[in-house]
Design goal:
- By secondary structure, the chain is an alpha+beta fold.
- It is 23% helix and 35% strand.
- The strands form two sheets. A four-stranded antiparallel β-sheet has the order 3-4-5-6. A two-stranded antiparallel sheet has the order 1-2.
- β5 (122-136) and β6 form a beta hairpin.
- The model has no long low-confidence stretch (mean pLDDT 88).
Length: 154
């Protein structure tokens, strides 16, 4: 019988949230696996991956640091609400996914030029995310997360 490591997954979810709350780029990047790639739906109802985009390519610390810092420098956090709905661990406790409901709103600082979006002065990350984690040595890293998607109400 193995030890349940789901609290370690919650820690990395909370760390990522703190990074948004404090605009801490280094803290944000500490969550990511060196092989991470991030496909992103252009809006919360883009369920078909045919519409998704690649914003930053394979994880590269220097490039992702520059782009993430540029985002934090040009946007103000309005609110960041996250609720972990479910954490599922592999039997071996070396892989996991977490279902997290996200409502994070940024407003562009009008005094700053931002290349991040052309959809107006707000970036609203809202919906449900499935964050996928794996171990690197003794440490958890986010391996993949499609962007947040709206959950239809049936």
């Amino acid at each position: 019988m193995s030890i349940d490591r789901s609290n370690e997954i919650q820690e990395i979810i909370d760390r990522e949230s703190r990074a948004f709350d404090t605009s801490d780029t280094a803290l944000m990047l500490s969550c990511y696996h060196p092989d991470m790639v991030w496909a992103w739906p252009p809006h919360p109802r883009a369920y078909d991956p045919m519409d998704w985009v690649m914003r930053m390519g394979r994880f590269n610390y220097d490039r992702w640091y520059k782009l993430t810092q540029q985002f934090f420098d040009t946007h103000n956090l309005v609110h960041n609400r996250r609720i972990t709905r479910k954490i599922v661990m592999s039997e071996e406790q070396d892989g996991a996914f977490a279902v997290v409901d996200v409502d994070t709103l940024f407003r562009q600082d009008k005094s700053q030029d931002s290349p991040w979006h052309d959809e107006g002065d707000e970036l609203h990350i809202i919906g449900r995310a499935c964050k996928i984690y794996t171990t690197v040595g003794n440490e958890w890293k986010m391996l993949y997360q499609p962007g947040t998607m709206e959950i239809p109400k049936f």
